[in-house]
Design goal:
Strand order of the largest sheet: 1-2-3-5-4
Number of domains: 3
Order of helices and strands: EEEHEEHHHHHHHHH
Length: 227
């Protein structure tokens, strides 16, 4: 199994490239998003790869990060989703967008990818909600829908002079909002109220000033199967 290639970009087509690795050329298929981010022909390139081997086919698919590669593998595990559909979804949403859509049950965003119908999009969201946390916990791929409002609320507190005794209260309020957002995201991923609350509470105790994104990341790590 070929898991990663590093070499020189020999040529590029609309949906694949040729990587020259010490004289051996590998054809690698990539999403539109990955293709747009690749360097020019003749430059060094490095991609994580996933190989599909069937009786009549052997193809390599390339990804700029391990997280995106793992999302590809998960997407392809869903009935009716092949490598081309997976690349279309990752090309349209990126790994963070896929994480967000599945965490929030937003199948309409998945459907926006080329070649994905409503039934397939709904199946992806339902089938992956229990498997997604393990990938989301890798390298901080999390749902950050409330990060914007939380940041906006924090800015005035820093800009305006306030008595020192009021600062802990401001942090407490922010922590409560972050915990509520984290609980909501974990609930959307299918975790029960008690286990989600316990994980968020433990994460919050360890990081009292953590925002929603950090709490979700920490809670997912606590909830991930051990061993």
């Amino acid at each position: 199994m070929i898991g990663k290639l590093t070499g020189r970009l020999e040529y590029r087509a609309s949906d694949h490239i040729l990587i020259d690795v010490r004289g051996v050329g590998y054809i690698v298929y990539c999403s539109d998003r990955t293709m747009a981010a690749l360097p020019g022909v003749g430059e060094a390139v490095s991609l994580y790869t996933d190989m599909v081997v069937r009786e009549d086919l052997m193809q390599l698919y390339g990804f700029p990060s391990l997280i995106e590669k793992e999302w590809h593998r998960l997407l392809c595990s869903v009935q009716g989703v092949g490598a081309k559909v997976s690349l279309a979804i990752l090309g349209a949403l990126g790994p963070d967008g896929v994480s967000r859509a599945i965490a929030l049950g937003d199948w309409a965003s998945v459907k926006a990818a080329k070649g994905v119908g409503p039934k397939t999009a709904q199946r992806i969201v339902l089938d992956l909600k229990d498997k997604a946390p393990g990938v989301m916990a890798m390298g901080g791929t999390v749902v950050d829908a409330m990060d914007g409002p939380a940041t906006e609320a924090a800015e005035p507190a820093e800009a305006a002079p306030v008595p020192a005794r009021k600062k802990p209260a401001a942090r407490s309020g922010g922590s409560a909002a972050a915990s509520a957002g984290a609980l909501s995201a974990l609930s959307n991923l299918g975790y029960g109220p008690s286990e989600a609350a316990a994980a968020v509470a433990e994460a919050s105790a360890a990081e009292p000033e953590a925002g929603e994104a950090e709490l979700i990341r920490s809670a997912l790590r606590l909830l991930a199967p051990k061993g």
